[in-house]
Amino acid sequence: INLEKLSLNDCGISDLSPLENLTSLVEVILGENNISNLEPLSGLISLRKLSIRSNNISNFAPLTNLKDLE
After folding, report:
1. Any long-range contacts for 17-24 (C-beta under 8 Å, 24+ apart)?
2. Rounded to whole angstroms, how far apart are CA atoms 1 and 35?
3. Gap between the Cα atoms of 14 and 70, Å rounded
């Protein structure tokens, strides 16, 4: 799948594992959900924009290898 943009604001999402193989994603909007684990996003090397406001995230370490992330 060559999906580049995904917006899932306020959808009650808590599990990001379905996104981990979507490596073409450039922009992901996940605000106002129930997300606490960002590990599934750690391999999204094309990711440039990520909105995760209003979630339950305390560990941002999985994002450290995403060099293009703004």
Report:
1. 19/44, 20/44
2. 23
3. 23
List the helix and strand counts (H, then E) for the chain. 0, 3
pLDDT in tens, 8-43: 999 999 999 999 999 999 999 999 999 999 999 999
DSSP state of 42: T
Distance CA 67, CA 58 (A): 20
Q: Is the pLDDT of residue 1 over 80?
A: no
Cβ of 43: how many Cβ atoms within 10 Å?
15
DSSP 8-state code for residue 35: -
